[in-house]
Design a protein that fits this description.
about 300 residues, alpha/beta, Spore Coat Polysaccharide Biosynthesis Protein SpsA, Chain A, 2 domains, 11 helices
Length: about 300
């Protein structure tokens, strides 16, 4: 029998009560020949016990769910990289422990990689759900590589729990970068794209992403970490091949805004001037800048950081 070519990678730390539904959404996929690797990252809420029981209950000679238990929480980035090191298949599909995979997600993404050997990273459209599973929003992303790259300075175009990638490409990019404690997923995507990787989006809803109250934390220390991540990621986007002048300009302004929030005003002014010089005559008509400005205004009105 041919070994599976795809691994679903999930990490879980104190993920109850959503973990059961997330695991079920993976085990009930329309495609059957894949490996499901779950890492219990030092949970203390029963997540580890549930995963152990789910692994034990599997029937058949080729169980799909394989669980690794870590004695203590080693952090989000470290556990993702530990999982990535354990993957033995060509394709890795990410699943977060509180989100839901649509029944055809794995089959659709596996087929996409088979039909598009030049693509290293693929995402999908997603819906957002609340704690009770009620739909509260959605995101639809462009299909093509250039459009996705150009919209990265606006916001992350790849929902982590809807993404799959070629394992070798992610490893070649260095895995999830420890330098980004908050935005390690976007850090990996930018590294893959800077290295010449190609991305695509399947314009079909393949995952539901759960939104929790309090996710937009007002903790000052966390806000500063997030802002530092934003600055360095925006600068990193400048190294993506084929990124358009409008996107480069937007990335520089995003970096300048983050530097200003960090109190580094001289650096912010240097970056803002570089943004203007990037495409001075395009500035008033750069739609990415106006979209980002509208997003920032909306966040302020809603009281978000």
């Amino acid at each position: 029998m041919q070994l599976p070519s795809l691994t679903v990678l999930m990490t879980a730390h104190n993920a109850m009560p959503y973990l059961k539904e997330a695991v079920r959404s993976v085990l009930e996929q329309s495609m059957r020949d894949f490996t499901f690797l779950a890492l219990n990252n030092g949970s203390t809420d029963g997540s580890g016990e549930y995963l152990a029981e789910a692994e034990k209950k599997q029937a058949g000679s080729l169980p799909r769910l394989h669980v690794r238990h870590l004695p203590e929480n080693i952090g989000r980035t470290a556990v993702l990289n530990k999982g990535l090191d354990l993957v033995e298949t060509e394709i890795t599909a990410i699943m977060d422990a509180d989100d839901l995979a649509m029944p055809g997600r794995i089959e659709t993404q596996a087929a996409f990689f088979r039909d598009h050997p030049d693509i290293d990273l693929v995402g999908s459209d997603v819906a957002y759900i609340d704690r009770s599973g009620n739909r509260i929003g959605e995101d639809r992303f462009p299909a093509g590589h250039r459009s996705l790259c150009d919209r990265l300075p606006l916001y992350n175009q790849f929902a982590h729990a809807a993404c799959a990638f070629r394992t070798r490409a992610a490893r070649a990019a260095g895995g999830y970068p420890a330098a980004y404690p908050y935005a390690q997923d976007l850090g990996l995507w930018v590294a893959m794209l800077r290295g010449g990787g190609k991305a695509a989006n399947i314009q079909e809803r393949l995952a539901d992403i759960r939104v929790h109250p309090g996710q937009a934390s007002r903790d000052l220390a966390l806000l500063m970490v997030r802002t530092e991540d934003t600055h360095r990621l925006a600068e990193g986007m400048l190294g993506i091949p084929d990124i358009s002048p409008a996107a480069r300009q937007a990335a520089r302004f995003r970096s300048a805004h983050a530097l200003m929030r960090l109190g580094r005003k001289k650096q912010a002014l240097v970056q803002a001037w570089a943004a203007i010089r990037e495409a001075p005559f395009r500035l008033p008509w750069n739609s990415l800048l106006w979209q980002r400005l509208a997003m920032e205004c909306t966040r302020r009105l809603r009281g978000c950081a």
